[in-house]
Amino acid sequence: QVQLVESGGGLVQTGGSLKLSCAASGRSFGTFPMGWFRQPPGKEREFVAGISRTGGKTYYLDSVKGRFTVSRDVTKNTVYLRMNSLKPEDTAVYYCAARSLGTEFTSISKPDYWGQGTQVTVSS
Fold first, then answer.
1. Which of 63, 70, 76, 92 can pair with 49 through a Cys bridge, CB separation 3.0 to 4.6 Å?
2. Which of 38, 63, 50 is nearest to 117 (CA)?
């Protein structure tokens, strides 16, 4: 079993930055492609970013390209989402996710594990 725990959410002003962390425990974290999703108020959950098992490939939602950066530290069993130039439309609950198979985590990947989510609120 894999457990994912997000942290780092909070309230920030437009243009500000936050760095989310997702700590993984359980089975070998280094074998899992990882991703970040978000669910804005009243909307469906959407893919935000993904990173391959090795960290060599990353994928992003078009609206966050150039502003968000996903990374991973296998030694710490942690994946990160650095968010810069935040906008009010980035307000959402952000979820960490993992796949148990495959090498990549793209916009169409289906997670096998989810974290509990962390709230990000961007004020205008």
1. 70
2. 38
